[in-house]
Write a structure and sequence with these properties.
It is built from 5 helices and 15 strands. It has about 300 residues and is of the alpha+beta class. The protein has one domain. The strands form 4 sheets. Strands 1, 2, 3, 4, 5, 6, 9, 10 and 11 form a 9-stranded antiparallel beta sheet that branches. A two-stranded antiparallel ribbon has the order 7-8. A two-stranded antiparallel sheet has the order 12-13. The N and C termini lie far apart (about 80 Å). About 25% of the residues are buried.
Length: about 300
């Protein structure tokens, strides 16, 4: 009976002969299994509309800034106070995409048709009668104007050549609008805090200044040849729309007050806008203080 190594008990191991063939190769030890990388979570697709509130336009996602814009409108929204005869409204700007977003992304939901440009009060940003505001941009998914819009004014968007040597024309992007906002140094911006008495006698706080900001923004967009405010008729119907409070259906009700600009804020007195009578605007070092408070708020948010 042979042992485990094939040698009879008490016998000698026979020398290998050529007839035995080549010696069996030893199995190399199997290498250690490479560590499996943890799966990378896919970006969560947005379901509802997303609102970006920021004092720094670099916070807006790049893909959103690269969307092409085919339509720009000013909308005057009913403020939904009980006394609707007052004509009080809030002014927003709407950018409509050339092509709606087909698939949901992390920065906008599927079916997004454009963005609304607006403002939101900075937390803790009330300085006396003035309210410091951040820029805000919100996606939207519907075709028509806002359901609270009393009046809508469209401003033509200029297309641009892809290069000096080419006749190819392309649409403006959301980023084109934001770059003008930044280069004109329009942020931060303060609203004035006022009280409006409703029909039931209750005084409600409101911040006013949306028309002042948006009219200045449109002026700079026209200078940068992103928009075209040149239209037949005097006064210009685009800028003149900022002069009025509106009833339902867009009928002009009464003139509105505008800010009396001071040297604290870079601004232009637009010829077609009636700045008299005007309400008090930024005085003394209010804007400088507002910028300091804004920087504090941004630093606190970034932790």
């Amino acid at each position: 009976m042979a042992g485990d190594d094939g040698v009879p008990p008490g016998g000698k191991r026979r020398a290998a002969s050529p007839a035995d063939g080549p010696p069996a190769k030893r199995k190399a030890p199997s290498p250690a299994a490479a560590p499996v990388a943890a799966p990378v979570a896919a970006p969560v697709a947005a379901v509802g509309n997303i609102k970006y509130i920021t004092g720094d336009l670099n916070d807006i996602p790049g893909p959103l800034k690269s969307r092409h814009v085919s339509k720009f409108t000013i909308e005057y929204l009913d403020m939904d106070v009980e006394d609707r005869v007052s004509g009080l409204s809030h002014c927003i700007l709407r950018l409509t995409f050339q092509i709606p977003l087909r698939q949901a992304t992390s920065w906008a939901p599927a079916g997004t048709k454009g963005v609304i440009l607006d403002h939101d009060m900075v937390r803790g940003g009330v300085i006396g009668k003035f309210v410091l505001n951040n820029f805000s941009m919100k996606t939207f998914q519907y075709e028509v104007a806002h359901h609270n819009a009393k009046k809508v004014v469209e401003v033509p968007v200029r297309r641009r050549k892809t290069s000096k040597c080419s006749n190819k024309i392309q649409y403006r992007t959301v980023g084109d609008f934001l770059r003008v906002l930044e280069s004109a140094e329009m942020l931060p911006f303060t609203y004035q805090k006022i009280k409006i008495r409703q029909a039931n006698g209750e005084l409600v706080d409101f911040s006013v200044g949306c028309r002042d900001f948006n009219s200045q923004f449109i002026y700079h967009l026209n200078r940068a040849q992103v928009l075209n405010t040149t239209k037949a008729g005097v006064p210009n119907p685009i800028y003149d729309s900022f002069n009025w409070a509106y009833l339902e259906g867009g009928e002009a009700l009464k003139p509105v007050n505008h800010a009396g600009w001071t040297s604290d804020y870079a601004h232009v007195n637009i010829a077609e806008i009636n700045y008299t009578p005007y309400r008090p605007a930024l005085v003394g070092d209010t804007l400088a203080r507002a910028k300091v408070e804004h920087r504090k708020a941004v630093d606190a948010a970034q932790g």
